[in-house]
Queue: 3 jobs
Job 1
Amino acid sequence: MASKIESSEYTELSRVTGWFVVLRWIAFAGVAGTLGAVRLLGLFELPFALLFAITSLLGLLNLSFTAWLRLGRRAVPSRRQTAAFFHAQIVCDFALLFLLVYFTGFLENPFCTFFVFHILMSAFIFSSRVVYAYVGALVAMVTGAFLAEYLGLIPHFQLWSRGGSAAAASYLGQNLPRAAGLVSLLLISAYLITSIKRRLEEKGQRIEVELDRYRNLDKIKSNFILQVTHELRGPIAAVSGYHQMLLRGLGGESPPKSLDIVRKAEHRTDNLLTIIDEMIDYAYMKSQGEVGRVRGRLPLRGAIEENLELLETQAAAKRITLAANCPKDLCVSATRDLLKIILGNLVHNAIKYSPPGGRVSVTAQGEGREVHLLVSDQGYGIEPEELDKIFEEFYRTRAARQLERDGTGLGLPIVKRAVESLAGRMSVYSELGKGSTFHIFLPALEATDEQDPDHR
């Protein structure tokens, strides 16, 4: 029998085998309780000793299945071993259920339809060929037992009448429709579930193809944005540099009115550079699917000081004090680019949305297997109803729109994506008029860990 597993998720097979074990314990308790009640009340004449023996065997088998399942959680078995374990459960269940049904009236027993549950569960995991093999075996067992009872080769255990075997004609008249109904139920159930599964798989494959196409298109778009924004940044940065030269008087003395015009142009150019930088970061995060998977050991203190140094001019223009507090030996598992995106965006926003003369602090401390990074400001704060929206792409708070008409609303979403790429998490606490604190938790590393510290 082929045992190819159709499900693409290995965990699905393990989950279903776990369901079987739990359901079998429920069935064990139900069968044992029902047999005990029937015997106590004297409702039927049945081979109770044999039935209790079969039920005990069911419990012992499920005990071994439970032990195997728990052992598999510690030493993960292969797909072949798990598939074999699943087949063993189904075969044992079919055999024991058939014996229980046979000794309690066979086709007279309404529980003979319970075989359908195993057909449905096996179809969820295995190929149609395996499902039909099980159904064929069941049909052969039912047909063989029916003919053997009819021919008197094996006894018939009557459920609804006491004593003696039924006459051949009476047995045939009563049980032939039941046998035909059970066989039809098994075949129809197998056909329906395999047909539905096949259609769902075909539809899922078509959806996956479309998703791959859209992912490729999105990656092409992101790469295009990345290239275009890189090309734009150079000339605009040069224009900004010329503006600053004029404002410093390096090009000669200029009239106050001209300087005012240059100052406004420089302000707009600076805003445009900020937007371009955000677009570059956004396109970089979108186009580099593996960007956070290959990480190295990075001393956090050096990264913080490096990023604060890049923003000193912006802070000085608003007389904002930049402060850092980080242990020297504290290291994180990260890439230099992603750490620059995280720190650069958060500190830039803290300066931008703080009043003149304020303070922006970056603090880091080790907390077990994590590094807790805090970026705090004394700015305007965030409205409580907006806290859940600030990490959405293109969303800008009311205060941000009032302070700066232009903007992308991509800064914080980019930071969140970068943090998650590093297997970290992020949250924010804010009070109106008092400022905001962003909490970032990143995987920690000891300073002596053997990883490449210069990994980009």
Job 2
Amino acid sequence: MPQKYTNNLIHERSPYLLQHAHNPVHWEGWNQAVLQRAKTEQKLILISIGYAACHWCHVMEHECFEDVEVAETMNTHFVNIKVDREERPDIDHIYMDALQIMTGSGGWPLNILALPDGRPFWGATFVKKQEWIQVLNQLQDLYEKNPEKVIGYAENMAHGLKEINAIATNNNTDFITTSEIREMVSNWSNYFDTFLGGYKRAPKFMMPVNLNFLLHYSHSQEDTTSDEYVETTLTRMAWGGIFDHVGGGFSRYAVDTKWHVPHFEKMLYDNGLLISLYAKAYAVTKNELYKNVVQGSISFIKEELLDKNNGFYSSLDADSLTTTGKLEEGAFYVWEKKQLQNILQEDYTVFCDYFNINSYGYWEDKNYVLIRDGEASEIAEKHSITENELLKIISACLTLLKDERETRDKPRLDDKILTSWNGLAIKGLTDAYRYLGNEEYLELALNNANFILTNLLTQNGGLFHNHKDGKSSIPAFLEDYAAIIDGFLGLYEATFDEKWLTKSVQFTNHVIDNFTDTSTGLFFFTSNNGEVLIRKTLEVADNVIPSSNSIMAHNLLKLSKYYPEENFGIRLNQIMKTMRKTITENPQNHANWLHLSLLMNQDFYEVAIVGKNYHSLCETLMKNYLPNVIFAASKSDTKDVPLLANRQVKNKTLVYVCKQGTCQLPVEETNQALDFIKTKF
């Protein structure tokens, strides 16, 4: 069917940008030619940033950008640029900071008006049609009649953008202590919802970085309050509608306090991080629920996001078509009571109690979102069956629902492959392999890592950020290197193939050479040789995804243990001293840094295993939750990994437990090695 309108986004590869290619708005992609045209014509720039799975981005497109009246206003007065925030997180960082300075909050769609040179002066998220037209006309009129006022505001904003990204330091160069961490956690805990998990507010984001830190903190400090909070949160998330009980995997966030109704978009990054978190939680608790979440989430990314060449796609949209052909949020995932009764027949009654097909599980328009609110044993007792019998019934019901769901129109897929998010998936899969022991998970991780090395390497030894339709593009950002190094370090400990350790060192040295901010020791988000934007960003705050700098700092800690003769430890120490004030002033937004501070306060162990039976000994040891331990292993001595040099003893497989270069006498039994670690020699 021929399209009435086509703009220059038709030449882009991003699914999000292509969704807007037939808007009447004269959209352009972000490129130097368009930016130069704005300067030449002295036109204001309208920058609209979103992503393919964003529900409100679609709503605004339909209400505003598909409208001819809106398009006429936009086309007459502005150079209109559409940005996929996942393709260009560097641009998104800057303009999201601008929006937060202006309004105190953020979100997508992110709409910015900027001077011809790109400096912002106005911003908003979702805006309705008439208000959008009115605001655009008013701002254009102001720029024509009083340009000095607009320029002055943009100058102040440019200054504010640099200020908000500055790292505050003080004269205290000591590392954060354990007692300081305890005090920070105690103050932070006032915000915890101890009944339903997460924070005492809605919407609720899962924040795996916070929970990963608190899991380690509660375990190492024997803090039962934090431990109970983590388990409550993990359980309630796993029970909630935010987890897809039929097909596995998590949505981005819940709009309510009980983790019930999500916005239904499913992202690779959330699931990579949560697979890792739940695998660790399973190692600590042996709770089968957490194991099931890991298995279900991996099934989801394998079935729905895996490319034929072993890259992982980015996301599934929140919206899909109903049976009447209407695009609606959650249509693929929700159920009417009559549908469930017809599909499940005599098992409906049990299913109804298990997943609350009642007022607790009701959403809107006759639709229910599956949610649990109690232990399986309680439901089994109510129906006078065993727990095993109950779980068999529920499993059979979910299989029937999955088959039924496959007949529905599927949510749209964003099939670009992002290096950073694939790195998070690799790390999740290696943790799942480590703690659950499923070889398939390791195979998925290895195939994905080899896909990255085959398709996303640049000629100078760096990485690309994006892969789509067989082509790689956009020089990698710090987030890409940080996540890939973390994933490859996980692969080394899963396989003990030195290739992954070597690649981790190579990419780390590339980051040091190309991303270093010499004044702080931190790393810029973009390469020092990259495109010049209105600000160089230092990403340090941990959000849903840990910040690229905090992941790199964790990488430096591990590499400093593998290669103590290198300068990785010195760099890490400088970074931690730089970050001290920032972390202590706002710990809840720097949880991955708190985690690193905790690790640096603990005894940290290096375990080397050498001999022909190294694999089985490693497997036994590494099933334990040991966040303050790194492992190195091989059949024989190797000088390439200092930990493994001069360790071999004929006809024996020995375990060496070391701390800061001092090793205990080697042992042959894993229990003895664990005792060394637990007694903190």
Job 3
Amino acid sequence: MYSKLPYYIFITLFFAIQNSFAVRSPKFELKTQYEASCFPKCTCNQTTVECKNLNEIKTDVFEHILPKIWPELDTVSITGNDLGDLPNENLFGDRNRHLRLTLLDLSDNDIRSFSAETFFGAPKVQFLYLRNNEITSVGSKPFDYMPLIRVIDLTAGFAEGVSGKKKGEIIGDMLESGHHFKQLQELILNANGLIKLDSEMFCTLENLGRLILADNLFESLDLNVKCLPSLRHLDLRNNRFEIVPAMIYKGGLDLNAIDISQNPLKCDCKMEEFIKFANDDSTIFLDQGKTICKAPTELAGKGIFEIDTETTNLCQRGSRLLHWIILILIAGGCFYVYRHLRRAGKLPRMPTVFGYSQLKSNDEMNNNYNSSNNQPAFV
């Protein structure tokens, strides 16, 4: 027994040293199943697959994300590629479906188009990010396989060559679905060059709480407020509004946060009712320091929350200016008619007497006449 003791000690020390090297040296570390199956240059763990700036032109990276390897996958973020038209079939390949995937980020991928089948493998997604893409078209009901979606972010999502009107139509197509987006709470449409939206566009979004329309080209906005009973946050900053849409302050919307900053507001009679409304309930307005008047000249650069509506009559300012404009137009019209008639010779010529010299000549004529009458008559 004692003769075998050195042997056991040797074996014990050998395995101890081997385990020590295995812990300290990365060469002896075994990769997890997620790391072993991870697409090159991506970062993977039990719940997340993240790939940045791969510069891929194909969608092979998605097919590497197999449900049997990632049964608890929660987040997929694949950005920085040139994917173009996404396939009109399951992005994850075959019939693969990730039933715990809640966040899908496909930003900065130059995506041009997609269809409903594209997202067949992501039926539980709640947060969808499609920022900075080149969308030109979508298939029918493209989000039909995402009934639980809560947030859609389409910031700068469309190609520059697409007109503002066409972009509005594409958004309308996106919002068509059999599930009516009952879970959708936030829609982000920033920086898309939008000019106009159909008034009924959001009528299927009964639970929409936040509508973000910043950094667009809106001059007016007329939405059916009856379709937005849950809307609480409306962001219209940095557009081209001179007059704030009446739907904001004339009832129908129950907002607790509004942002109309960085718009070229024209603080005249048409804005008086809104400015009074804003000052009476200023707590709901965001970024008040940048909510300023651009016109008229006497109010340019002044914040709408600095205008004392009790002492400042915006309508009176506008009416005085209008009166002067009308008077000038009337005077100009009269002068034009007078010149026209005079040149046409249709004005009667009136005898005129001007100055002392004319009076003198008349007196001389009278004297000559009298002297001729006083001459003696010879028979």
